[in-house]
Amino acid sequence: MKCTFEHNKGLKDVLAILNHIDVQILSLIIEILLKEKFSDSIGFLQKYQNQKVYEQSIFKVENIQSFDKWWKLDTVQENIKKFTNVLISMKNHDFNQNDYSTKNYLQTKQLLIQEIIENKKIIQFLKFLVHLTAIDDLFIQSGSNSLHLLVEMKINLKNQFFEGIKIRNTSLIGANFFRCNLNRSGFENVDINGINLNEAQLFNCKWKKIRLNQLIKLDGHSGYVYSVCFSPDGTTLASGSEDKSIRLWDVKTGQQKAILKGNKNAVISLCFSPDGTTLVSGSADNSHHLWDVKTKKKKLKLQGPYKTIYSVCFSPDGTKLVSCGDVKDSIFSILDLDIDEIDDKDFFIFLWDVSTGKFKFLKNFAHNLALSVCFSPDSTTLASGSADNSICLWYLKTEKLKIKLKDHSDKILSLCFSPDGTTLASGSADKSICLWDLKTGQLKRKLKDHSDKVLSVCFSPDSTTLASGSADKSICLWDLKTGQLKRKLKDHNDKVLSVCFSPDGTTLASGSSDKSICFWETNLEQYKTQGHSNTVCSVCFSPDGNTLASCSDDKSIRLWEAQTGRQKSKLDGHNDTVCSVCFSFDGMTLASGGADKSIRLWDVKTGQQKAKLNGHTNLIYSVCITPDVRINLFVYGKLRQDNKNQYQITIKFFSNHFIFLLMVLHQHLVVQISLFVYGMLKQDNKKQNWMVIQIQSIQYASIDDKDFFIFLWDVSTGKFKFLKNFAHNLALSVCFSPDSTTLASGSADNSICLWYLKTEKLKIKLKDHSDKILSLCFSPDGTTLASGSADKSICLWDLKTGQLKRKLKDHSDKVLSVCFSPDSTTLASGSADKSICLWDLKTGQLKRKLKDHNDKVLSVCFSPDGTTLASGSSDKSICFWETNLEQYKTQGHSNTVCSVCFSPDGNTLASCSDDKSIRLWEAQTGRQKSKLDGHNDTVCSVCFSFDGMTLASGGADKSIRLWDVKTGQQKAKLNGHTNLIYSVCITPDGNTLASSSADKSIRLWEIKTGQQKLILDNHQIFFQSLYFSPDGTTLASGGADKSIRLWDVKTGQQKAKLDGHTNLIYSVCISPDCTTLASGSADKSICLWDVKAGQQKAKLIGHKDDVLSVCFSPDGTTLASGSADKSIRLWDVKTGQLKAKLKGHFNYVESVCFSPDGMTLASGSADNSIRLWEIKTAKEIEISENHYQNILLQFKTPLVQNNPLAHSVTTYPTILLISEQLSFQAKEALVFNGEFVNYKGYDFLSILKQKECCILQDQLQLKYKCN
User: Fold this and answer.
1) Which pLDDT value is given to residue 367?
2) d(CA 306, CA 371)
3) For residue 656, what are the contacts with CB-CB under 8 A and spacing of at least 6?
4) How many angstroms separate the most distant Cα atoms in the chain?
5) How many angstroms separate the CA atoms of 161 and 88, rounded?
6) How far is CA 271 from CA 33, 208, 293, in A?
């Protein structure tokens, strides 16, 4: 792009202005824009140039006092002016017009990132632009580009509030949105491959035209999907399954078009005729079926000579069909063959005439155990792959062998000719793919990446890409020009049995043993992330926890920013696998040991190699630094036998400390070296910072060749002391105690030895494992030793007594690594079973299982603060995990909301619940102001005093409590009732409180003294509800005897009894003018009564279940009712007509209450939520994320436990993944309603489900269906 430089220069000039602006203003602006609901951000900011406008608005923002005192109005105004100019420039800039994630802007973007990556003010501004998209549509593209840059720069975006943002026309590949709030977000034409949505909230999102490799997942088959095949026109996909059925799918919609039934056993192979009118199936029931694709009817059944048909294929001209399989014995008499001449392992190849249904036995084509057949594009050649590891190419015309291809070391499972006819691909049980040149018959290239059998191969229509499906559950896409792996697709949960490209090459279909079919997009550009390209052997946190070091089979060491996963540096120097890394105590030095037989010391700050330690003749397994030293190296291997001075090691040492050297030796000398720092180096050392260690000769005659010996060295003299008692058969793992007094060694003889370093004697030998010890770790408090073994168990040993404290079992394969948390409360274990277990050391229980690796977990390491665990795996990735087991808690009740009540000024809403708590909420924002704890059982009712200073509550604990609303402290506790209290109510003058109870009494209390005034208890029934008349003279009660009673408050005498309901009364309420009483009943009706006459005025019918609560509006014109039918209804009091029906709750509506201004209605429900409703519009008021908390609170148990995909032991998602092949993650993401549609029009909600997210609407429907 010609103007790239100019655009970049212009953008840098605009951003440079930010260096002169206090960025605290950004959050202030967003807050005001949201609060005042301005959508024109520039217009709003320009108004701020008026002092009065500014003063009127700026001080409306809460916590303005928290800003620095020097930040005065004129300073702020000047900042706003500058910032307004930045936004005006940005609005008209190319950055706000075009997609910066495209190739055209690659150079611009790279230069820009170099300039801004360390500029915190610009980073804050980019975040501001992202948030601005939720408010001002004019900045959607600049906000989208900003988010793209933040992702590219690996800025920490975890746990961010992104509600309502609008992102379009960009790429967010590899973004980490762990536990982000993305509610109401709108994404359009966004590439989300490889993003981490683990634990994110996705409520009411609108994501359209989304680009994601996996397009859709088709579920329908009840058995393995053995074969998938596209029709020639690309509109239909056929799938054959173990469930004996063939299914035809509409490629555009993903809907099932037809099920073809007729096979009596598994359908193993499918193929469309070239014209797309016929589908042939090969089955384990020894038959071929030809199906009419249009009518979905069977055209012809070809009863073959097979027991099982493994492969079928149409010739390109459509006239012939070839198949192979194992034959029945009867075929030999049919073909007039001498059975003695036939190898019993022969799998015959038969050629069928499609028009007649007759077959021709190609005797010359007999190929030992032929498992796969395929026609060349020109129909002249037939290829067959065999269990004898060979491929045969046959001339069809002459029926003679053309050539035999051999290179595989195991059977050939799949064959495919390239559409251009130049190449044959073969997939084998030896885990490799061979590409053969058909012109020369030579092997062109061998492709290796799969870790299990290659079961299917398929060329793209343009012959540039090969897809391979494997028993390792993955699909590989290969670039045929370079032979490089382009992409790895990993969303199946079992073997991938079949892969097939669509005719246009844009889509790949795959069938799997997990019974599903997946569609994948194939034309997306491959995004290569920074990461290891081979097994990650070891990971280690720096002492400050900010950096993670990793090393790999790819010969490199990498340093990562622990919070974001951004690669800080790559340390190259080793020329073979790097097996182990370890930081020095001060974090300035990194030690590494590798298969190139060298130890290297690296400067962490510069990334430069400080030293190389040579001497070994074999690979170095481990390096480690003890807590109390500067350098500690563990080195496994042998001394170089060709060393001129065989018994001398020279080490350059970067510390002015004395060295004490401990060595563990094999017969051929060095197995392990540890360096300890105890004091100063001798000042007379001629070569400062160098040490020469002289090894005396050793007599080997009396040494067992399996013993690993330990030697103690005096570095000042270069002499060692042979510690014969330290001999430990085949020691594989060693570890020092935190106080450096004890050495633990684990051995291949299944034992652990603890050695006194001071006395050089064996302390104790620990035995319980039944296989070799692979890993050891002391707890930081020095009380416990953990050992991981090849017997799949972990032992915890009490170091004081030497006794086995506990044995931990859950892994299904070898335990390769163990590590204690810094507080010694948790143990992490990594295993060859691909999982990590976190164990509670107090109880011995499994706390958590982490299962996102696809291969052995070789190394685990806690961060110094214990909040994060890093793991390295043979799958070439590093995962970061959150170890804080406290789950994210939202503010809100965790059980049924029994009652809600507005304060007289309308600013506070009180609620009480079955969860035993009372909560006070800010009515405008939904923010929880305080939580009042004191009741030890359900709190059934709350009521404010007339002045709003006191709150009364009654509960199932038989007590009434009075609370100071301002301080949240309990003022008094009123005892007297002998059963649960249903209702409390305070007179308008604030002097008297009434309470009704299941003890069948109503009591009146003097609030000031807390003394009981009257007891109304000469009744045989309990009263569910109470309500004082606005003038305070009358108390209404509704009870289980289906009647309403009116009481004289002064005398306590019954004034009237109102009958008319046919079931118990749940709620009563008197109108503000004292003329009308409303009652709600279990008979599903509401009655309106004339209070003066005691007569029923009207009966309101509409609810389909019990009416649990009624409330008059302050003007008396509207009545609200809440019901067990989950609805709220608004009634016109004058006419008795229904005005509106409010829906939103998922369970009983227990309580309704109008705000004092009559504009808002609050409702509390058995779905654990409180909702606010706007009376004018009859719609729910959404208060930011608190609205969504109401949905979350429907679940009394952790959401993951409601997830049908969850395992028996709860698993948890990664917070960060570092891998060259990124994976789309959405484990435990919370999805509620919304749209999720990819660019081809597929709803990819099924993919989110597959990723183990929680679809809340599905779970709520299931929950209440069960109820």
Assistant:
1) 47
2) 13
3) 680, 681, 689
4) 119
5) 26
6) 61, 34, 12
Please list the alpha-helical segments (H only) found in 698-833: none
Which residue, among 342, 339, 358, 360, has the nearest Cα to 350 in the 3D structure?
360
Which contiguous run of DSSP H or E holds residue 283? strand 278-283
d(CA 323, CA 312): 4
d(CA 371, CA 310): 6
Supply the pLDDT for residue 731. Answer: 64
- Per DSSP bridges, beta strands 1254-1255 and 1230-1232 are parallel
Q: Pick from 1062, 1108, 1109, 1069: which is nearest to 1091 by CA?
A: 1069
- Say how far apart CA 67 and CA 596 lie, in whole Å: 58
Helical ranges in 844-943 per DSSP H: none
DSSP notation for 335-369: TT--GGGS-TTEEEEEEEETTT--EEE-GGG-EET
Rounded Cα gap, residues 289 and 261, in angstroms: 10
The answer to whether 414 and 455 have CB atoms below 8 angstroms apart is yes
Question: Pairing mode, if any, of strands 1235-1238 and 206-210?
Answer: parallel
| Helix, strand, coil share (%) of the chain residues, nearest 5 | 10, 45, 45
Query: Once rounded to an integer, what is the mean pLDDT over residues 156-160?
Result: 87
DSSP string, 765-783: EEE--SS-EEEEEE-TTSS
- C-alpha span between 868 and 889 (Å, rounded): 19
Strands (E) in 657-814, as ranges, are 658-666, 669-679, 690-694, 707-714, 719-729, 731-736, 742-747, 751-756, 761-767, 773-778, 784-789, 793-798, 804-809
Contact 921, 1170 (CB under 8 A): yes
Residue 428, classified by CB atoms within 10 Å of its CB into exposed (0-12), middle (13-18) or buried (19+), is buried
Dihedrals phi, psi of 744, to nearest 5 degrees: -105, 135
**If you ran DSSP here, which 8-state letter would residue 161 be given?**
B
Report strand pairing: 567-572 vs 690-694: unpaired
Q: What pTM does this model have?
A: 0.60
DSSP string of 978-1014, one letter each residue: SS-EEEEEE-TTSSEEEEEETTS-EEEEETTT--EEE
Strand order in the sheet with 475-479: 454-459, 465-470, 475-479, 485-489
Nearest Cα to 1157, choosing from 911, 907, 966? Answer: 907
Output the six-digit token pair for 853.
């690796």
- 260 in Cβ contact with 296 (< 8 Å): yes
* Angstrom distances, CA of residue 1184 to CA of 162, 163, 924, 1179: 11, 8, 11, 15
Nearest to 1091 by CA among 1045, 1153, 1144, 1135: 1045
Dihedral of CA atoms 1183, 1186, 1188, 1193 in degrees, nearest 10, equals -140
Distance CA 1239, CA 279 (A): 30
The dihedral region occupied by 174, where left means phi > 0, alpha psi between -120 and 50, and beta the remainder, is: left
Give the tens place of pLDDT for each residue, 1094-1113: 999 999 999 999 999 999 99
Beta bridge partners of 273: none
Strand partners, 879: 871, 1217
Judge contact between 1149 and 1109, C-beta under 8 A: yes
Q: What is the CA radius of gyration of the chain?
A: 38
User: Among positive and negative, which fits the CA dihedral 256, 258, 259, 260?
Assistant: negative
pLDDT in tens, 606-653: 999 988 876 566 676 666 554 433 233 333 333 333 333 333 333 333
- Residues shown for the chain: 1267
Calculate the alpha carbon distances from 452 to 470, 511, 512 in Å: 6, 17, 14
Partners of 291 in beta bridges = 279, 298
Question: DSSP string of 864-893?
Answer: TTSSEEEEEETTS-EEEEE---SPP--SS-
Per-residue pLDDT of 245-280, as tens digits, reads 999 988 877 788 899 888 888 888 888 988 989 888
